[in-house]
Every structure is written in structure tokens, then in C-alpha cells.
Amino acid sequence: MIFPLCRTDEISDPGSKSFEIKQGRKTVSLFVVHKDGVFNAYINSCPHTGANLDWQEDQFLDMDNMYIQCSTHDALFEIDTGACIAGPCIGDHLDVIDLVIEDGQISAQLQ
After folding, report:
1. What Å distances lie between residue 78 and 20, 85, 93, CA to CA?
2. HSE value, Cβ hemisphere, 13 Å, CA-based, for 31
3. Contact at 8 Å (CB) between 11 and 30?
């Protein structure tokens, strides 16, 4: 199923934004990162603890806007792959959410 999230111009470059999608009784928490004109989306859950990654609302990037940073233990994840490159979950990955971008609209594709 396709779930509209926001317009492409609503997320700065670099920047990030969180979303919650209701699927029946289940709520999926996810976030979108915009960097160098590319959008990537992931489930908002650290593979190490399961905690949300954002340290403030819509803040998922480190101070240099180079990596996604976990708010709990400062693990770093590559923006384009979700791979953990530093911290206690090195070698793990964030769960990818497929995006559909049409006419400036970003939508999540969930199964």
C-alpha cells in the first residue's frame, strides 16, 4: 500500500522528518532523510535497542549532517544504505522503507 507522507520541499537538504503510519491496529514509525537531492527512508528503530533514533523531533542526523545518529548510544548509520558504521551495532542495518516520489509528493510503500 502507498501512504502519502509530505511534499519534497518540506524536508530541507540536508534534513530529516519523522512520520507515523497507521495500518489497522499497528502503527509504523519511520523517517525520511534528504541529502544531496536524494531521499531515503527507514523504520525509526535502532537495531541495537529498538529505541527511536531521533534525539529531538525530526532530528536524525549528526551535527555534521553526514550520518544518521542514534539518540540512545550515538551509533552512526550511513544515510544512503542504513548500515551501522560506529557503535554497538556495527554490521547491522536500519530497516529500509521504499519510497515513491511523484510530482513532488513523497509516499511510503508498505506491504
Report:
1. 22, 7, 9
2. 25
3. no
Residue with cell 529505541: 51
Helix, strand, coil shares of the chain, percent, nearest 5, are 5, 50, 45
Residues 29 and 20: beta-carbon distance below 8 Å: yes
- DSSP labels for 32-73? EEEETTEEEEEES--TTT-----SBTTB-B-TTSSEEE-TTT
For 38-89, the pLDDT digits (tens) are: 999 999 999 998 899 998 999 999 999 999 999 988 899 999 999 999 999 9
Q: State the maximum Cα–Cα separation within the chain, in Å, rounded to a whole number.
A: 40
Handedness of CA 107, 108, 109, 111 (dihedral sign): negative
Q: What is the pTM of this model?
A: 0.95
